[in-house]
Write the structure tokens for this entry.
Amino acid sequence: MFEKILVANRGEIAVRIIRACKEMNIRTVAVYSEADANSMHVQLADEAICIGPAPASDSYLRIDRIISAAEVTDVDAIHPGYGFLAENAHFAEVCESCNIRFIGPNPRAMQALADKAVSRALAKKAGVAVPPGSDGVVDKEQDALAVAKRIGYPVMIKAVAGGGGRGMRVAHNDISLVKGYHTARTEAEKAFGNSGVYIEKFIENPHHIEIQILGDHKGRIIHLGERDCSVQRRNQKVVEETPSPLIENKFRKLRDKIGKAAVKIAEVAHYTNAGTVEFIVDAHGNYYFLECNKRIQVEHPATEEVTGIDLVRYQIQLAAGETLHHSQGDIQFKGHAIECRINAEDPFDDFRPSPGRIEMYYQPGGRGVRVDSHVYAGYTIPPSYDSMIGKLIAYGKDRREAMDRMSRALGEYLITGIKTNVAFQQAILQDPNFRRGVYSTGFVEQLLGGARRGLIEEKT
Ligand code: ADP
Ligand code: ADP
Ligand code: MG
């Protein structure tokens, strides 16, 4: 087993990884930007090295500086967390060439799933359905029009390198397609350094259902069930839960089918370590492959709560060369888990980010409640990174108990000095359709539309 791991990330996920290392008696090295000197991950790690100024491009994305930090501190391995360099195959290769183990999938699997268009092709090869769309990248306007004509509007123009809900737009006719096609390419070039886009049928109000997988170097792959992440705002996840109410209430056979499809894709990609295969599911229970997240995900704790498996510990063990400790039949699901992403943002001002100093901070606790966060009273949230400041996870013997516990916990959460989405999360948890488990990716827009109408009615 490794003796020392460098955590190439910040925020709650850096804290999460350091916690796993401590429980495994592995020493840790934190890297941080000048803006993060007071972050909890710096204080919890055994050693910490500043790798540059606040912008990620000058710090958390600097491969040279991270590798220097790893060499100076003589670590055996690097955990990349999520975002930043986590899915960068080049970074993984640089680590290996410096004799530092990269805690993530092998470079070959990362290449096989390099971007969304390549992954679509791989899913097809694995015999898994993808939304109707283009074969790979669309280089010409005429080709975009031809694909749209074939599959019918509405369509989505998606950046092959997109992520975090960014880099996609819907087109309803030829005019908006042509306009969107060029804008999407320019934006993708700016945001991801890759102008490649592809076209996919826009599925109306689908469900986002994803499968957690684990693979070892012997080629064995298992899945740890699904997470339903359909509560989204602007294609970004807000609440995640497992099991999926859609599967539980409507399509019981889907869990096994999607689970097997995810494993098949991972097998074709020769996948190793932890990953997630994402699908969208339409109202009839048809499922389509969306993309593969080649890393630990934000919402991994939900799966940990119902399976009793520590996914970060497993990542470290698999990277160290251990084989899977579980067969598919060993994976048992017990109870229900819900995760709410807690963001520093103002729900009353179009969810504008709200960085700044946290004055008072009291986080909920008690039975079945877990908080993964790097913040504390007196901590200043820098404006340079995303607005997520923590995750609240509630576990219960069934969905009802998990929801009641989540509501109770949200009610206890006290954060002053900045704006947060805690009250908005509470509104979701109180919504009758959410309570019934009847929601799709259109849910948040409907909820916000209702709230807007409510405000207007109050005024008049
Ligand atoms: P998950 O799929 O685990 O729910 P998200 O999609 O919310 O995670 O992304 C996790 C983090 O990674 C976020 O901070 C997000 O902004 C970032 N991220 C993911 N993919 C990309 C990408 N291609 N480019 C930039 N940031 C990304
Ligand atoms: P990202 O890399 O940003 O996570 P994804 O391809 O995983 O991008 O899509 C994120 C979300 O965008 C999905 O969960 C879904 O809500 C929406 N979406 C993506 N593709 C489609 C599609 N073809 N039809 C309808 N919604 C889609
Ligand atoms: Mg995704």
Summary: The chain is about 35% helix and 25% strand. The domain at 207-454 is CATH 3.30.470.20 (D-amino Acid Aminotransferase; Chain A, domain 1).
